[in-house]
Write a structure and sequence with these properties.
about 40% helix, mainly alpha, 5 helices, binds zinc ion, about 140 residues
């Protein structure tokens, strides 16, 4: 039985969680490295409800998903969290897709991206526990783009 759990997860809390895991040193401009405190809120994305920032240093724009596997995808933060959770738990793609309301194909694409990032990262890291593995995977999620 599938639960529509995406409705139960708060987007604001999900955003905070993603921020912590994707950007542990705080959100920064991916173009010039200036911190988000040197940017202004530019607009809100329609579907994802993400704040888009415009950097005061270089005028580049970015958001929470910049340089992550979710860049350019119209995921709400709650959907992103649930997808990551499903992939890490090894849940079938079709089931994840139904739970968060996206196609199985989309889940598969993201799963492959996440897994290849994890594989690339594995050799040079000594993993102490699953949490370390997960956090490091997220932190490196954008570097290969
Ligand atoms: Zn910048």
């Amino acid at each position: 039985m599938d639960f529509p759990i995406v409705e139960l997860l708060d987007d604001e809390l999900s955003s905070q969680w993603l921020l912590k895991h994707f950007h542990p040193d705080g959100l920064k401009c991916p173009h010039c490295g200036a911190g988000v405190n040197q940017a202004r809120e530019f607009r809100q994305t329609k579907t994802s409800q993400l704040t888009v920032y415009r950097c005061n240093q270089c005028q580049g724009i970015y958001n929470l998903y910049s340089q992550t596997v979710f860049e350019g995808r119209y995921f709400r933060p709650a959907q992103a969290v649930l997808l990551l959770r499903g992939v890490i738990k090894g849940q079938p793609s079709a089931e994840i897709g139904r739970e968060i309301g996206v196609s199985r194909q989309t889940v598969l694409e993201l799963r492959h991206e996440i897994q290849s990032l994890a594989d690339q990262h594995q050799p040079q890291t000594r993993l102490t526990d699953e949490r370390t593995e997960t956090d490091e995977m997220f932190q490196n999620a954008g570097e290969k783009r």
